[in-house]
């Protein structure tokens, strides 16, 4: 069966999400006590790693980077197979209630074009968040949280982030989410959690930074 572009994006996002939670975050949390992940060239990866190894999802592969620089990879087929290749116990335990199934035998479906789109979106979002934080004089490190698979920062009780899409907004999008909720509902504050703009309206890193900055200006009362 040939998947439509939206179906391919959804299945790829679901596959990455499951591996992020039940292999990358699971192994890292068991070894280093943190679930924090990060954008990685071509996909997403660990921050602290597992016993000196860094794990990453790159396109349709699970990649293991050994301490000596050796790179090993295997096609993504199932959670169980990916975990075995990475040398970790599958299934996230001891942190939060996972958003995805830990079934080790369900087939993972990754579309190459959708994977490239997601990887490019993460790269743009990560670059924009870093630049925005620097402009604010608060250079915080963006984190890719496996629960929602978004990469973001929090500054002055406001979340700024980049999502690959979800059940509420199918397309990849950027968001600004004040911890106390949106100050009102209008063209900018267009969601229950704050503001969101889909990727078709964000072409460059500058576009993304402008979106984040406009939200901050509105919150601080200096925007219109």
| Total tally of structural domains | 2
The residue fraction in helices comes out at 25-40%
Helix/strand-derived category reads alpha+beta
What Rg is obtained from the alpha carbons, in whole angstroms? 18 Å
Principal-axes shape call: globular
Distance linking N and C termini: 49 Å
Beta-strand fraction estimate: 15-25%
Please give the order of strands in the largest beta sheet: 1-2-3-4-5
How does the major sheet shape up? 5 strands, antiparallel
The average pLDDT is 96
Give me the number of helical elements: 4
The total count of strands amounts to 10
The residue ranges in which pLDDT falls below 50 over 5 or more consecutive positions are: none
Task: Sketch the topology as an H/E string, one letter per element.
Answer: HEEEEEHHEEEEEH
Structure write-up:
With 224 residues, the chain is α+β, with helices and mostly antiparallel strands. It folds into two domains: 5-110; 113-220. The chain has helices spanning 5-32, 79-86, 112-135, 205-220, and strands spanning 37-40, 43-46, 54-58, 61-65, 71-75, 143-145, 150-155, 158-163, 173-178, 195-198. The strands form two sheets. A five-stranded antiparallel β-sheet has the order 1-2-3-4-5. Strands 6-7-8-9-10 form a five-stranded antiparallel β-sheet. Strand 1 (37-40) and strand 2 (43-46) form a beta hairpin. Helix 1 (5-32) runs parallel beside helix 2 (79-86), helix 1 (5-32) crosses helix 3 and helix 3 packs across helix 4 (205-220). The model has no long low-confidence stretch (mean pLDDT 96).
């Amino acid at each position: 069966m040939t998947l439509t572009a939206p179906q391919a994006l959804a299945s790829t996002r679901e596959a990455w999400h499951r591996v992020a939670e039940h292999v990358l975050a699971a192994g890292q949390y068991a070894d280093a006590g943190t679930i924090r992940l990060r954008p990685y060239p071509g996909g997403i990866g660990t921050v602290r790693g597992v016993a000196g190894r860094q794990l990453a999802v790159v396109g349709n592969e699970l990649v293991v980077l050994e301490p000596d620089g050796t790179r090993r990879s295997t096609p993504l087929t199932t959670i169980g197979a990916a975990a075995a290749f990475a040398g970790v116990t599958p299934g996230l335990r001891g942190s939060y209630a996972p958003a995805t199934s830990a079934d080790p035998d369900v087939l993972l479906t990754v579309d190459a074009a959708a994977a490239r789109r997601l990887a490019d979106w993460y790269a743009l979002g990560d670059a924009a968040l870093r630049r925005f934080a620097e402009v604010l004089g608060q250079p915080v490190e963006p984190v890719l949280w496996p629960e929602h698979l978004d990469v973001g920062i929090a500054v002055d009780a406001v979340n700024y982030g980049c999502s690959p899409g979800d059940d509420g907004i199918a397309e990849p999008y950027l968001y600004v989410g004040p911890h106390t909720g949106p100050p009102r509902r209008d063209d900018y504050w267009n969601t229950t959690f704050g503001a969101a703009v889909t990727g078709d309206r964000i072409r460059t890193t500058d576009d993304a930074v402008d979106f984040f900055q406009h939200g901050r200006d509105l919150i601080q009362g200096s925007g219109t």
